[in-house]
Design brief:
- By secondary structure, the chain is of the alpha/beta class.
- Helix content is 37%, strand content 18%.
- The protein has helices spanning 46-53, 65-71, 76-91, 99-106, 122-136, 149-165, 195-198, 217-223, 245-253, 273-292, 306-312; strands at residues 5-13, 21-28, 55-60, 111-116, 141-145, 179-181, 187-191, 206-209, 233-238, 258-263.
- The relative contact order is 0.11.
């Protein structure tokens, strides 16, 4: 293989709250090591060499134990991606995340759920993850699904604006009406929320399901197999919409494979207290709890409350009739 470990590269990120994230990276010299691409770019095989050979050995200074658990994993490519994405967001896209947005950007989880209030920036943060994946992983496929084609189009429009801001050429892939093709061959494709029209894709590196609480379960089940070949990542973004559907089930009962992030409006510094008080008065506690406080509430569509149905179920051997 050749080469040995050569020194340290330290990057420090300061979120808007003034805290700092320090990431120490160890570089290996020799064949394929390349340089450290601070701006996410490089020449020739430099990016690939960096992703393969850089090792994040410590990340600390803002969330404590969360850093070691989520950044101290075994895949060098994913550790390298976590190290560079904040610099990419700020330096290339002009986006300075708050602390929770930075946590999502840094996450290397294979499965993630953002249960966040309206106007927190779910689609912006997911869009940055999508662009960074497409930009740093040549030839990969990123899929974005939503309840409707219009909503997928809005997501793609936001992503396209960020890519244009990087000075990159923007064009479609020639096959899909909602698509972006980057110079490195990577694609970002938007899909409608109907089971019969989302099929046909494979080897997906990253899948984002926007407004996931409003996407039908059959669409979700049709989308998941597309992740199989690449063992791709899946992120669900939404505010709640009742106690039913795959978004609710994965949030409440999905197990440890899911990283769950929730941010109610009262913890979002961009939304004023006065606005929220007015919204609560206008909407009532139930709707306010759902739209702004990330609460899964009964929506009146079920005859019996979900807890009642679950409590009535018992494990029993089938009758031998």
């Amino acid at each position: 293989m050749g080469g040995g470990w050569d020194g340290w590269e330290v990057s420090t990120w300061e979120p808007s709250e003034g805290r700092s994230i320090t990431v120490a990276v160890r570089k290996r010299t020799g064949r394929g090591s390349g340089g450290w691409g601070r701006d996410g770019r490089g020449s020739g095989e430099r990016e690939r060499g960096d992703r393969e050979n850089a090792e994040i050995v410590r990340a600390a200074g803002w969330v404590g134990a969360w850093d070691e658990r989520h950044l101290g994993i075994e895949e060098p490519v994913r550790r390298q991606e976590a190290a560079g994405i904040l610099q990419f967001a700020s330096g290339r896209l002009g986006f300075v995340p708050d602390e929770m947005q930075a946590r999502v950007l840094l996450s290397t989880a294979k499965r993630g759920i953002l249960n966040c209030c309206r106007q927190w920036g779910k689609s912006t943060v997911a869009g940055i993850k999508a662009i960074h994946r497409a930009y740093t992983c040549a030839g990969c496929l990123v899929l974005v699904a939503s309840p409707t084609e219009r909503q997928s189009g809005e997501f793609l429009s936001k992503v396209e604006g960020m890519v244009r801001g990087m000075g990159e050429r923007v064009r479609g892939d020639g096959k899909n009406s909602l698509s972006l093709l980057l110079e490195n061959g990577s694609r970002i494709v938007g899909l409608p929320g109907t089971e019969g029209t989302v099929r046909g894709f494979s080897a997906v590196s990253l899948m984002v399901i926007d407004e996931a609480a409003r996407v039908p379960d059959e669409v979700y089940k049709a989308l998941r197999p597309m992740l199989a070949v690449e063992n791709g990542d899946l992120w669900l973004l939404s505010t709640p919409a009742g106690k039913s559907g795959f978004f609710y089930e994965n949030w409440e009962h999905g197990g440890d494979e899911w990283e769950r992030v929730t941010v109610p409006a009262t913890e979002c510094g961009r939304i004023s207290r006065e606005f929220l008080e007015d919204e609560r008065a206008q909407m009532g506690n139930t709707w306010f709890g759902q739209e702004y406080m990330c609460e899964f509430v009964e929506n009146g569509r079920n005859l019996f409350r979900r807890e009642v149905v679950r409590g009535a179920l018992v494990d029993r051997e089938p009758l031998g009739l």
